[in-house]
């Protein structure tokens, strides 16, 4: 199974017949990483075959209803399924108060360890194979965008060099591939650099949440493989976008072009757009490699040599 990104909800403000409220899931190794949690997310887990017992970290961008009203249902459903794996929820300062209110009013009594973390601008959370950076963006009183970074992997293992150095096949090869030094029976110390190529760059994903264009977003996006950017409106509603703290498709495309991203994915689409043709046309005039997400859109990721390749799979 390749790593994948699944768009569980792509609407803005209110659901439509074709779009649910925001939720973007990154499946990485055994972990699930959910960015925002709009209404009905637990149904999307079922619909798209996402295992409800896997390790889960939820990163909430801000406390507007369309981004957090799915939390009560999701957390309650996990309890009804007798989940035992911990759930971690990260977000703005009011997140803990919100979850405390859920627990006290609807009687949420998790069967699992529910951990809540308050994020801050510039804070970086370090996990086993990746890290997530939080940056304060500009939408309301407290809103955040996030950057997922896979840690660099050891370089290519050169078997010919290992054989020439007299390193026996087996566990010692594995330790070197994991970046560990080894000691041979004859006393020689072999360093990973003696048999490995340069480190392989990790995958990078940026998610803006809701925001107007700002420096923090460009920093999150810089050099990312995939930028998931809100595009609530088209450019004819640029003034409305600014007043309401949102971005147009054209503005998102400008950020992608300046930030050297490989793929721009537009989401958080206003219900006024029955089709996305205007958004696509507007963005592609500025940045060619762009798609507008739909619910169920999946991006499959595979490492091919030094780089990741991706495949965009529309919902069938």
Q: Please indicate the count of domains.
A: 2
- Proportion of strand residues: 25-35%
Amount of helix? 25-40%
Number of distinct beta strands: 19
The CATH architecture category of the largest domain equals 4-Layer Sandwich
Give the class-level CATH name of the largest domain: Alpha Beta
With helices defined by DSSP (H or I, 4 residues minimum), what is the helix count? 10
What overall form do the CA principal axes indicate?
Answer: globular
Terminal-residue CA separation: 19 Å
Describe the overall structure.
The chain is built from 10 helices and 19 strands. It has 316 residues and is of the alpha/beta class. It folds into 2 domains: 3-152 and 204-313, Metallo-beta-lactamase, Chain A (4-Layer Sandwich), CATH 3.60.15.10; 159-194, no CATH class. The strands form 4 sheets. The chain has an 8-stranded mixed β-sheet with strand order 7-6-5-4-3-1-18-19. The chain has a 7-stranded mixed β-sheet with strand order 8-9-10-13-14-15-17. A two-stranded parallel ribbon has the order 2-16. Strand 6, helix 4 (95-106) and strand 7 form a beta-alpha-beta unit. The radius of gyration is 22 Å and the shape is globular. The mean pLDDT is 94.
Characteristic key phrases:
316 residues, alpha/beta, Metallo-beta-lactamase, Chain A, 2 domains, eight-stranded mixed sheet, seven-stranded mixed sheet, 10 helices, 19 strands, 25% helix, globular
List the SSEs and their pairings.
Elements: E1 3-9, E2 11-12, E3 23-28, E4 31-35, H1 41-47, E5 56-59, H2 65-68, H3 71-80, E6 87-91, H4 95-106, E7 114-118, E8 124-126, E9 130-137, E10 143-150, H5 159-164, H6 171-177, E11 182-183, E12 189-190, E13 204-207, H7 215-221, E14 226-230, H8 238-244, H9 249-259, E15 263-267, E16 269-270, H10 277-284, E17 290-292, E18 298-304, E19 307-313
Parallel strand pairs: 2-16, 4-5, 5-6, 6-7, 13-14, 14-15, 15-17
Antiparallel strand pairs: 1-3, 1-18, 3-4, 8-9, 9-10, 10-13, 11-12, 18-19
Helix pairs in contact: 7-9, 9-10
């Amino acid at each position: 199974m390749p790593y994948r990104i699944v768009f569980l909800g792509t609407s803005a403000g209110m659901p439509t017949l074709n779009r649910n409220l925001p939720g973007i899931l990154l499946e990485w190794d055994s972990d699930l990483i959910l960015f925002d949690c709009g209404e009905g997310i637990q149904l999307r887990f079922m619909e798209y075959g996402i295992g409800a017992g896997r390790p889960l970290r939820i990163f909430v961008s801000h406390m507007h209803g369309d981004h957090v009203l799915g939390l009560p249902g999701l957390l309650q459903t996990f309890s009804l399924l007798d989940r035992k794996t911990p759930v971690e929820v990260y977000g703005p300062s009011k997140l803990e108060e919100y979850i405390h209110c859920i627990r006290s009013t609807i009687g949420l009594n998790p069967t699992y360890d529910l951990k809540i973390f308050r994020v801050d601008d510039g804070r970086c959370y370090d996990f086993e194979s990746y890290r997530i950076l939080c940056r304060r963006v500009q939408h309301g009183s407290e809103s955040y965008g996030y950057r997922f970074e896979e840690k660099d992997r050891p370089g290519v293992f050169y078997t010919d060099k290992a054989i020439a150095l007299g390193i026996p096949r087996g566990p010692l090869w594995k330790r070197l591939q994991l970046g560990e030094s080894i000691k041979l029976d004859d006393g020689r110390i072999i360093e990973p650099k003696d048999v490995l190529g340069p480190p392989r760059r990790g995958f990078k994903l940026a998610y803006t949440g809701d925001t107007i264009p700002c420096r923090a977003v460009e920093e999150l996006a810089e050099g990312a493989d995939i930028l998931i950017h809100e595009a609530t409106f088209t450019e004819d509603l640029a003034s409305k976008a600014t007043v309401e703290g949102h971005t147009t498709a054209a503005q998102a495309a400008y950020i992608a072009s300046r930030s050297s991203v490989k793929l721009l994915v537009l989401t958080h689409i206003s219900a006024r757009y029955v089709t996305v043709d205007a958004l696509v046309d507007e963005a592609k005039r500025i940045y060619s490699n762009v798609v507008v997400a739909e619910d169920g859109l999946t991006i499959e990721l595979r490492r091919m040599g030094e780089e990741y390749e991706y495949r965009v799979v529309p919902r069938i």
